UniProtKB/TrEMBL annotation:
This is Dynamin-related protein 5A. Residues 511-603 form the GED domain. Its main location: cytoplasm. It comes from Panicum virgatum (Blackwell switchgrass). The lineage of its organism: Eukaryota, Viridiplantae, Streptophyta, Embryophyta, Tracheophyta. One of its GO terms (molecular function) is microtubule binding. It is found in: Cytoplasm, Cytoskeleton, Phragmoplast. Pfam families: Dynamin_M, Dynamin_N, GED. SMART domains: DYNc, GED.
Amino acid sequence: MENLISLVNKLQRACTALGDHGEESALPTLWDSLPAIAVVGGQSSGKSSVLESVVGKDFLPRGSGIVTRRPLVLQLHRIDGDREYAEFMHQPRKRYTDFAAVRKEIADETDRETGRSKQISPVPIHLSIYSPNVVNLTLVDLPGLTKVAVEGQPDSIVQDIENMVRSYIEKPNCIILAVSPANQDLATSDAIKISREVDPKGERTFGVLTKIDLMDKGTDAVDILEGRSYRLQHPWVGVVNRSQQDINKNVDMIAARRREREYFSSTPEYKHLAPRMGSEYLAKMLSKHLEQVIKSRIPGIQSLITKTIAELETELNRLGKPIANDAGGKLYTIMEICRMFDSIYKEHLDGVRPGGEKVYHVFDNQFPVAIKRLQFDKQLSMENVRKLITEADGYQPHLIAPEQGYRRLIESCLVSIRGPAEAAVDTDLVRKAMSETHELKQFPTLRVEVGNAAFESLDRMRDESKKNTLKLVDMECSYLTVDFFRKLPQDVEKGGNPSHSIFDRYNDTYLRRIGQTVLSYVNMVCATLRNSIPKSIVYCQVREAKRSLLDHFFTELGAREMKQLSKLLDEDPAVMGRRTNLAKRLELYRSAQSEIDAVAWSK
């Protein structure tokens, strides 16, 4: 069981070292889930004397006004032998055997954090005391509740202290040690008042009654100690601390404990309560109770740790890796992000990610539909056919077939295919790939430059693709497929009836037949281009984009200096700070997981 208190001690120290003080923040907190005993009391309630009696050493700062201005996490470790020493977490290699020096260091460390302005701070001081005269126990000494600010303190100090105390004791894992003086009316006790507000049923509260020996003659605290005046789920414990005269005379704490035992055993009113009175009994009872609470909370803490580790890792992955400091590291980071973008872009084209089907949709739907929508009525109208045929014949009418007329008619039709052919090239997935490359979101300037480089590269490939696509159209215009015309049915007259006038060759029936022939040829060419243009686009644009989308950017990137590379990795400072804090918190939770696992295996 002692391992459990030691475990919580280690976790509390790790929390403080890595910045988890339980305050409200955007980060998950382990501190709030750890069972702890918070010592609460008003000024002059005897709170410090109770702690010193439990420890058996005079080590806490004393004085007028608010002396405790930071939480003191006091971890007691029972050891064998006769050595007694103390260690501060902020001085890990220094061991104190003089407890007067411990008192001075507590005051000095408080001033380091708060200055000498008598302000308070939620950052705890961790003090471990090793002694054969203590039980394994952890206590958190909180600033004493007060009703009036002293000179040099802001008026808000009263509320600030109450808020700090409340932030500890309102947590369900906190055990409240409410210290009240017996020589004052319990109804006015600051500790009982605030404890009742956060723990109305008294399930987490232990009442400690001090200064019993200073009560007026003829009065006693039996009703309180037996739970009749104010009932708690746990029994009240009375203690008799050293008087101010004893403190001034440096009365030994062991002797004070002996006198305390003698007081309760010899005073008639308290004799029947003596076995469960005194600072020694209080320490043993708190240690046992703390062990039980820790044991009951461990499964829940393990679940919380596992869940939080997964959440922290997920967010760290989303935020990306931290930026390297050297030029080589920065260049490597940029290249890796660019490769990720390039890989995602290829996955879109290859169908691993959605989006590549849009390219096929252009080839299989948009381009064929655009060709079908082409209207050749104007080019193949009776007037236009007659006009082009007669113009092509010139002064010498054609003898057999109007070859030049056919060429001009076909060319006028095929030129209109250039529009759909060019439109088929205008497809890209750069923006989609950029939005899915989370690492680019981390660096806005790099995102812009990579996007610009990709678009410029695609523009070059698109221009080349357009040239080749239009060349395919121009090829069809420049050379007609002779076999198509050879297979056409021939006139019986082989060009006409010689008995008729030559101008009969330009009659409507004849010209209509020419128009139909041209339309058939153009449809054949369209069917050919429907297959060849997608091949040209894939070869000149899609294939090249997969092979060398960012090659030009990589070449230019290698020549940049450190300052230019740093500008590309212009991460938001808030994101950098968030990543650092998350990494520290993840380190804390992993350490906690290891510590708990070690205790579990040791059992």
